[in-house]
């Protein structure tokens, strides 16, 4: 994909990635890896269920849920707002994490 300038010229110089950074979180039977971390606005997190059973990703404050995630299932969220967001597994309430979006 190319970015065009106003006069339809293609810019020269070093390429700048258009896609934001993507972070990966493993869902294990004993919790999330990593549990707590900081990202920037516009960045994406992908959770993948690497456990032996079903899990989910929920954000209670935002009323957001992945639904039931079978083994190897993935769920992603792009964070467009700054703040602190607590998340957890809806099937295992003791598994919690926190995301800080700068």
Task: Name the descriptors.
mainly beta; 4-stranded mixed β-sheet; 45% strand; Immunoglobulin-like; 3-stranded mixed β-sheet; 102 residues
What does this entry look like structurally?
The protein is mainly β and 102 residues long. The protein has one domain: Immunoglobulin-like (Sandwich). The protein contains no helices and nine strands. Strands 2-1-4-7 form a four-stranded mixed sheet, with no helix packed on it. β5 (58-59) and β6 form a beta hairpin. Mean pLDDT is 84; it is low at 1-18.
Assign the CATH superfamily. Answer: Cupredoxins -  blue copper proteins
Shape: globular
Secondary structure tally, helices: 0
How many structural domains?
1
- Kindly report the spatial arrangement of strands forming the biggest sheet: 2-1-4-7
Q: Work out the helicity level.
A: under 10%
Mean pLDDT: 84
- CATH class (first level) name: Mainly Beta
Order of helices and strands: EEEEEEEEE
Mind telling me the C-alpha Rg? Answer: 17 Å
Instruction: Give a short account of the largest sheet.
Output: 4 strands, mixed
Task: Itemize the secondary structure elements and their pairings.
Layout: E1 22-28, E2 31-33, E3 36-39, E4 44-49, E5 58-59, E6 64-65, E7 74-78, E8 83-89, E9 92-101
Parallel strand pairs: 1-4, 3-9
Antiparallel strand pairs: 1-2, 4-7, 5-6, 8-9
């Amino acid at each position: 994909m190319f970015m065009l300038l106003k006069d339809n010229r293609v810019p020269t110089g070093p390429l700048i990635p258009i896609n934001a950074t993507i972070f990966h979180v493993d869902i294990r039977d004993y919790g999330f890896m990593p549990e707590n971390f900081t990202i920037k606005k516009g960045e994406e997190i992908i959770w993948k269920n690497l456990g032996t059973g079903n899990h989910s990703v929920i954000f209670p404050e935002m009323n957001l849920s992945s639904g039931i995630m079978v083994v190897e299932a993935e769920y992603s969220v792009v964070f467009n707002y700054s703040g602190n967001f607590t998340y957890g597994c809806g099937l295992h309430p003791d598994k919690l994490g926190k995301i800080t979006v700068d």
